[in-house]
Design goal:
Blueprint lengths: L1 H18 L12 H10 L7 E6 L2 E6 L2 E14 L4 E10 L1
Antiparallel strand pairs: 1-2, 2-3, 3-4
Length: 93
């Protein structure tokens, strides 16, 4: 029985450590397209319709205009882990 309790505690600690990894954002942020589209369309956020075209493409339509955004990624070396990570940004296309 103690073995099962120890295994449960160990599993809980592992999950806690994985959940607090360095890749997790400190707080939830709004998708960049939600911030860029009102400016690019010169249109209030409330009047914009967002359309997911695919995993890397989002459209925005409002005030008689429309725009498309694509996600561009590149791999960047992490010097402290000798691994690669994706660095992505959304650009108007």
């Amino acid at each position: 029985m103690r073995l099962l309790e120890a295994a449960g505690v160990a599993a809980t600690l592992v999950l806690m450590l994985v959940g607090c990894g360095p890749d997790m954002p400190a707080k939830r942020t709004r998708h960049p397209v939600l911030k860029m589209a009102p400016f690019d369309l010169n249109c209030p956020y409330e009047q914009i319709e967002f359309i997911k075209i695919d995993e890397q493409t989002v459209g925005a339509r409002g005030c008689g205009k429309q725009v498309k955004y694509v996600k561009l990624c590149r791999q960047v070396l992490r010097p402290w882990t000798y691994g690669l990570r994706d660095e992505c940004r959304w650009v108007q296309n």
